[in-house]
Amino acid sequence: MSERRKLPVRWLTLAEFVGIAALLIAALGYWDNHRDRQQAEKERAAAEKQHQAEAKAGALKQTFLMTGQAQSPELIRLTAVHPEQVIQTQAISFPTDVRGDAVPTTGNSRIEAGWLEGGVEKALKARGVKAERGRVPVGVETNYIEDGQAKTDRSIYLLGYSLHARTFRSAKVELEGLSLLRRGVGEDLQKAVDATWDRQNPKPN
């Protein structure tokens, strides 16, 4: 039986060994760079998310937000959500059909049911609307102080109300609550309030 021929052993030359080592080093370098890029991308995404959150928080701080809490059926107290925003004066505008003049307040932010009595019932009847409760748009121009600076906000809110019939007198108005409808209204707040009222209660043909 013939012996198997042994294959000759070939040792790597120095140049080949250096080439393989260089290839391994390049591969490790590529992996390190890839890992560094992934880490950098994660850090960039986290920083961007943090920046967006800070920007949103800053924008929210600059936004004037107000809530209306019914203290009784005849009175809604208006307060700023952010305590650093201090209300100085306000002008409350109703649809012209309901009340022709704005009601100014100073240091006592509120809406009173008496400001609507007679007017809202008459305005609804003129448009053929029969309802015991509804929502009337109210424009509020607020002058307030924030960080020592005087600022102004003009917004439209929806004021919830109910009507209660009385003998020989206009219906009694009771207030139910206040919700924000639109912010950033321009100079002509009264016009915007009237347009909202017209959309809610179209004039009869």
Q: What's the arrangement of secondary structure elements?
A:
Elements: H1 14-62, E1 66-72, E2 75-80, E3 86-93, E4 103-106, E5 110-112, H2 119-126, E6 133-146, E7 149-166, E8 169-182, H3 189-200
Antiparallel strand pairs: 1-2, 2-5, 3-4, 3-6, 6-7, 7-8
How is this structure best summarized?
The protein is an alpha+beta fold and 205 residues long. The chain has helices spanning 14-62, 119-126, 189-200, and strands at 66-72, 75-80, 86-93, 103-106, 110-112, 133-146, 149-166, 169-182. The protein has three helices and eight strands.
Structure overview:
The chain is an alpha+beta fold and 205 residues long. It folds into 2 domains: 12-62; 63-200, no CATH class. Helix content is 34%, strand content 36%. The protein has 3 helices and 8 strands. The strands form 2 sheets. A 5-stranded antiparallel sheet has the order 4-3-6-7-8, with helices on one face. It has a 3-stranded antiparallel sheet with strand order 1-2-5, with no helix packed on it. A hairpin with a 2-residue loop joins strand 7 and strand 8.
